[in-house]
Each structure stands twice: as structure tokens, then as C-alpha cells.
């Protein structure tokens, strides 16, 4: 019974691995306006990092730019821009690398 359950657990994980093998990490660069103090880029970064499939988010208040890497099967540049915009910092996509 124990072996059967273990096998079933491994088997059920197989599609997750398969999906992961085809998923790609992509990078989007966004222009983020409205950041006025040191807390703003932290809030922007936090909101991006909370999104499913987002790996990294680097936000620079001096250049008003955010660079976000994400899993293309889970997230889109448009959705990331929308999330940051909804937070109160209008974000526009300046570059999306494959
Ligand atoms: Cu601020």
C-alpha cells in the first residue's frame, strides 16, 4: 500500500515536470511613472513579486524602470504592467525579450 501511494504521488507530479520543461523565463522592461520616494520602488517590486510566475523584479527609481523576469506560461507583460498600474504607478512596456 505504501509503495502504491508513493508511485501514485510520483506519477501525479509528472505533468508538472513536463509543463516546467516547456515553460520559458522571459524578461520585460517597463517604464514606471509616479515613484516619488524610496518606498515606491519597494512597493512596485513587492506587487510584481507577488504575482504567480514572477521570478525577479528589479525596480530603479532614478531611471523609473522596472525589469521583471517571469514564466511565460503563467504571466504576461501586459498583466505585469496592469498590476503595477493598478497599484498607482502607471506602467508601460518598453521592451519584452523572448
Ligand atoms: Cu513613495
UniProtKB/TrEMBL annotation:
Coiled coil stretches, renumbered: none
Q: Which residues form the signal peptide?
A: 1-18
**InterPro entries in the record, alphabetically?**
HMA_dom, HMA_dom_sf, MerP/CopZ
A Pfam family: HMA
Q: Name one GO molecular function term.
A: metal ion binding
The keyword Metal-binding appears for this protein: yes
Q: Is Signal a UniProt keyword of this protein?
A: yes
Q: Domain named HMA: which ranges?
A: 26-92
Print the keywords alphabetically.
Metal-binding, Signal
Name recorded for this polypeptide = Periplasmic mercuric ion binding protein
Which organism encodes this protein? Mariprofundus micogutta
Amino acid at each position: 500500500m505504501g509503495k502504491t501511494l508513493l508511485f501514485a504521488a510520483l506519477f501525479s507530479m509528472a505533468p508538472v515536470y513536463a509543463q516546467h520543461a516547456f515553460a520559458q523565463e522571459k524578461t520585460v522592461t517597463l517604464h514606471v511613472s509616479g515613484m516619488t520616494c524610496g518606498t515606491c520602488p519597494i512597493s512596485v517590486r513587492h506587487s510584481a513579486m507577488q504575482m504567480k510566475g514572477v521570478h525577479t523584479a528589479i525596480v530603479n527609481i532614478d531611471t523609473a524602470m522596472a525589469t521583471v523576469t517571469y514564466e511565460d506560461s503563467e504571466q504576461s507583460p501586459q498583466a505585469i504592467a496592469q498590476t503595477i498600474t493598478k497599484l498607482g504607478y502607471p506602467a508601460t512596456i518598453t521592451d519584452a525579450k523572448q
